[in-house]
């Protein structure tokens, strides 16, 4: 579980936000609030069991000393083990306010409740060999463990593993989420992510995906005003049908499958339009009521596929490109897409993304932002951590969706869901589609097949009205 709609900031941005607050308020007061938030969460879970608090040399350790003092004052049995002397002024002050003993991390005996205050956003290199195994053992031996801000050993801005333990029960993000809470190894290492307001205002164009606010069709709505979606069928008709079904269940008023022949299957309400070639498609896409076109699911990569893709790219209509369309574009994706004047969305998984934007480097947020800016499109970079980036620099991250989504065809369902939101005029279509898709997966439960996913979209939508 990730707090929805929460700002995500890098370590440097968090530090800048803290510095701004310290100009009008003592650092110790902010640290008292951070430690109090930690103590509140820990006391909820400890239920009277003995607590071991680990304190590192920096301000993460400072938070740990505060939490230990408040937990002890509330009657808990608390022991502290430190990896060394406190190294910052605020951490020294908090160490000074602790009136008990401070043991050594290396001699610490496990306790049922563990608080990890070794390192947070200041982690600058992999954990030293000595620290990582000791921390891993103490976490493994505990019944409940809470990481202050971040599990120690997780790179704040990338979620890369620098020696973080496995099995942390919960992480209390302080002030804002950091990329490590939503990306890469952070998905497995943070446990439940909780967010504490510690009175540091943060500005960010990056957020976790939130539940969208949707509206039912107006009293005078008709099928075209609800949104007309065209899904282009190719070599693997099932993929296009999945996308079309998702568009229908995702709220589109009218869905057309542009297909070379009648391959059958799919809902009866699905309208079929015979499209044999790129020229046919170009003609058909002059229909002005079309609100979104989906090209790519099961498209194939032959000459016909290329012709269909070109016709869609040249049409002045909102366009969702997925699957084979992305592979066909490959390295020339940005050059093709920059020329478009109508809005475009790309929904690559990591393989498709890397084929299109092989020069992009860095963490997933940075790479996706770079791609969106270069191609001037919205990119929905799928995976266990789905990163949505717009050319204006906005980012939305959806992580911890059902891992049962890892089954063939669920990406086609996302493309269709997105098309429905685009055709319906939703200005936040990508974020809404990502949320609805993940919610449908949660409702579908375990071991669903992609065919079952669209059936749960209406329920997901009902939760947004
Ligand atoms: N600013 C504030 O008042 C507030 C901050 N807050 C809290 O502070 C946290 C950030 O604090 P921070 O910047 O002091 O960094 P922190 O994560 O404690 O670690 C830095 C220390 O670790 C050391 N070190 C680094 N890597 C290492 C390694 N691999 N192995 C060994 N040592 C290593 C590093 O040494 P150095 O790199 O300098 O050699 C330095 O001594 C943040 O996450 C939040 O919890 C909240 O209380 C709100 C108020
Ligand atoms: N482990 C996972 N956890 C959460 N979501 C996942 C996971 N694996 C895949 N997904 C989601 O499932 C979908 C898979 O899409 P894709 O790889 O394009 O599949 P296909 O091409 O077969 O339709 C994406 O929305 C992706 O974000
Ligand atoms: K920590």
UniProtKB/TrEMBL annotation:
Residues holding K(+): 60, 116, 152
Q: Which SUPFAM superfamilies match?
A: Ribokinase-like, YjeF N-terminal domain-like
**In the Enzyme Commission scheme, what number(s) does this protein have?**
4.2.1.136, 5.1.99.6
Q: Where does AMP bind?
A: 382-386, 411
Matching entries from Pfam families are given as:
Carb_kinase (PF01256), YjeF_N (PF03853)
Q: How is the cofactor bound?
A: Binds 1 potassium ion per subunit.
Q: Has keyword Kinase?
A: yes
Location of the YjeF N-terminal domain: 14-206
CDD domains per the UniProt record, alphabetical: YXKO-related (cd01171)
Keywords, ordered alphabetically: ATP-binding, Isomerase, Kinase, Lyase, Metal-binding, Multifunctional enzyme, NAD, NADP, Nucleotide-binding, Potassium, Transferase
Question: Which coenzyme or cofactor does it need?
Answer: K(+); Mg(2+)
What biological-process terms (Gene Ontology) are attached?
metabolite repair; nicotinamide nucleotide metabolic process
Per the record, the domain of life is Bacteria
| Domain YjeF C-terminal per the UniProt entry, residue ranges | 206-464
GO MF annotations in UniProt: ADP-dependent NAD(P)H-hydrate dehydratase activity; ATP binding; kinase activity; metal ion binding; NAD(P)HX epimerase activity
Q: Where does (6S)-NADPHX bind?
A: 59-63, 120-126, 149, 239, 298, 349, 412
Q: Which reaction does it catalyse?
A: (6R)-NADHX = (6S)-NADHX; (6R)-NADPHX = (6S)-NADPHX; (6S)-NADHX + ADP = AMP + phosphate + NADH + H(+); (6S)-NADPHX + ADP = AMP + phosphate + NADPH + H(+)
Briefly state the protein's biological role.
Bifunctional enzyme that catalyzes the epimerization of the S- and R-forms of NAD(P)HX and the dehydration of the S-form of NAD(P)HX at the expense of ADP, which is converted to AMP. This allows the repair of both epimers of NAD(P)HX, a damaged form of NAD(P)H that is a result of enzymatic or heat-dependent hydration.
* Similarity comment text for this entry: In the N-terminal section; belongs to the NnrE/AIBP family.
Q: Summarize subunit and interaction data from the UniProt record for this chain.
A: Homotetramer.
**Name of the protein in its database record:** Bifunctional NAD(P)H-hydrate repair enzyme
Q: Which organism is it from?
A: Sphingomonas kyeonggiensis
Higher taxonomy: Bacteria, Pseudomonadati, Pseudomonadota, Alphaproteobacteria, Sphingomonadales
Q: Which gene encodes it?
A: nnrD
């Amino acid at each position: 579980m990730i707090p929805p709609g929460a700002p995500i900031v890098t370590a440097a941005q968090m530090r800048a936000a803290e510095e701004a607050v310290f100009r009008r308020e003592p650092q110790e007061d902010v640290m008292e609030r951070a430690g109090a938030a930690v103590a509140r969460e820990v006391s909820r879970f400890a239920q009277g069991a003995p607590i071991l608090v680990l304190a590192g040399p920096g301000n993460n350790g400072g938070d740990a000393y505060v939490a230990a003092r408040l937990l002890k004052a509330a009657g808990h049995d608390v022991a502290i083990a430190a990896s060394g002397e406190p190294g910052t002024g605020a951490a020294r002050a908090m160490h000074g306010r602790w009136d008990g003993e401070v043991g050594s991390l290396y001699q610490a005996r496990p306790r049922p409740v563990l608080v990890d205050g070794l390192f947070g956003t200041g982690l600058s290199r992999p954990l030293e060999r000595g620290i990582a195994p000791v921390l891993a053992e103490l976490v493994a031996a505990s019944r409940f463990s809470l990481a202050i801000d971040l599990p120690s050993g997780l790179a704040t801005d990338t979620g890369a593993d620098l020696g973080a333990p496995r099995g942390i029960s919960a992480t209390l993000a302080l002030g804002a989420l950091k990329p490590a809470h939503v990306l890469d190894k952070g998905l497995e290492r943070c446990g439940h992510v909780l967010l504490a307001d510690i009175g540091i205002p943060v500005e960010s164009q990056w957020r976790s995906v939130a539940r969208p606010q949707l509206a039912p069709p107006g009293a005078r709505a008709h099928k075209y005003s609800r949104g007309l979606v065209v899904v282009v069928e190719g070599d693997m008709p099932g993929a296009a049908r999945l996308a079309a079904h998702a568009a229908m269940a995702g709220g589109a008023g009218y869905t057309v499958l542009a297909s070379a022949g009648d391959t059958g299957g799919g809902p009866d309400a699905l309208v079929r339009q015979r499209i044999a070639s790129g020229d046919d498609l170009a003609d058909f896409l002059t229909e002005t009521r079309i609100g979104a076109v989906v090209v790519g699911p099961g498209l194939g990569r032959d000459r016909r596929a290329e012709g269909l893709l070109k016709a869609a790219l040249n049409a002045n209509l909102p366009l969702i490109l997925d699957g084979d369309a992305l592979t066909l574009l490959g390295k020339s994706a940005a050059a093709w897409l920059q020329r478009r004047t109508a809005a475009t969305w790309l929904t690559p998984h990591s393989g498709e993304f890397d084929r299109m934007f092989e020069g992009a480097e860095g963490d997933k947020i940075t790479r996706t932002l770079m791609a969106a800016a270069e191609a001037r499109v919205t990119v929905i970079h799928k995976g266990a951590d789905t990163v949505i980036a717009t050319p204006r620099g906005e980012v939305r991250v959806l992580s911890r969706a059902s891992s049962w989504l890892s089954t063939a065809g669920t990406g086609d369902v996302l493309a269709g869901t997105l098309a429905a939101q685009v055709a319906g005029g939703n200005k936040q279509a990508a974020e809404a589609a990502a949320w609805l898709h993940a919610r449908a997966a949660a409702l579908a439960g375990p071991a669903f097949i992609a065919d079952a996913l669209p059936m749960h979209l209406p329920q997901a939508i009902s939760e947004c009205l």
